[in-house]
Amino acid sequence: MKDEETGNRLGSYLRARRELVSPAQAGIPPGGNRRVPGLRREEVALLAGISPDYYLRLERGRDRNPSPQVLESLARVLQLDDIEQAYLLGLTATRPRTPRRKRPEHVPARVHELLAHLQIPAFVEGRAFDVLASNAMAVALSPRLRPGLNRLRSLLLDPEEQAFQQDWAKATADFVAALRTTIGDDTDDPRFVELVGELALSSQRFRTLWARHDVRGLDGGTTTVHHPAVGELRLHRDKLPIDDVILVVYYPDKNSDSDEKLRLLAALSHTDPAGTAHDSLADDPRRQTP
């Protein structure tokens, strides 16, 4: 988390994003001896309508209070979407920081009851993608959904999880970008610091993606996975906030091939379709092996 350690998060984000915009995307004619990826600083400044000196001060952290108008102009040049622009606007020093409660993440008792009654894979995750609780169908779908494990860590470091994902490259990009979005300005949270530090040391893929400064939400969607027992499954994903945690459910289209395979999976794993909830209160998400 080098940018967070230096305190120049705005400059680091601007630099990372301009390196991802090609001259052609910005409407700049090709040619010339370009020694940097993406746009030059002076090109960003010209397109945004600000002086090159002022833009240089922004990247180097010498001015941390640009106006919203300047940031919106930079967002246009850097071709940021709505989530990325909101993230950029939130990096200024003038944005009031909302204190976060540092209490441990807790799964309410009623959620354990809900997990036990759901007939589809369901689990509870924390802000850093720690699995806090899960039902038996979730574990049957993937053993990496046991309480005490971390979904991003498994995705990056566990070969079985890599084979499980149909599009591992997209999944890792989405998860890392969602982690950065979730962290926001809470860069001193011990769990985030620990997880990012561990993955930065253990995974080249993580280092590459983290350096891009991508941000996005990871909410609902559809994913395809390869289960070693029943084959390919196409599942929808929904994430439902409950108190301080997130309930995640996976489900197929009714009467689809994936629906039949999910029923077969329940039978093969000798799982009561209603499942049982697994608690993680005695588990530590850091006590994992790659």
Descriptive account of the structure:
- The structure is a single chain.
- The chain is of the alpha+beta class and 290 residues long.
- 44% of the residues lie in helices and 12% in strands.
- It has 14 helices and 6 strands.
- A 6-stranded antiparallel sheet has the order 3-4-5-1-2-6.
- The chain is elongated, with a radius of gyration of 22 Å.
- The two termini are 21 Å apart.
Overall radius of gyration: 22 Å
Rough shape? elongated
Characterize the largest beta sheet: strand count, sense, and whether it forms a barrel.
Answer: 6 strands, antiparallel
What is the arithmetic mean of pLDDT? 86
The largest sheet has its strands arranged as 3-4-5-1-2-6
Task: Report the sheet-strand fraction.
Answer: 5-15%
Q: Give the topology string: H per helix, E per strand.
A: HHHHHHHEEHHHHHHEEEHE
Task: Give the N-terminus to C-terminus distance in angstroms.
Answer: 21 Å
The structure class reads: alpha+beta
Counting H and I runs of at least 4 residues, what is the number of helices? Answer: 14
Number of strands: 6
> Approximately how much helix is present in the residues?
40-55%
Task: Detail the poorly predicted runs.
Answer: 271-290
What tags apply to this protein structure?
290 residues, alpha+beta, 6 strands, elongated
Secondary structure elements and pairings:
Blueprint: H1 2-6, H2 9-18, H3 41-48, H4 52-59, H5 68-77, H6 82-89, H7 109-117, E1 122-125, E2 131-134, H8 136-141, H9 151-157, H10 159-164, H11 168-183, H12 190-202, H13 204-212, E3 221-227, E4 231-242, E5 245-251, H14 257-268, E6 278-279
Antiparallel strand pairs: 1-2, 1-5, 2-6, 3-4, 4-5
Helix pairs in contact: 3-4, 3-5, 5-6, 11-13, 12-13
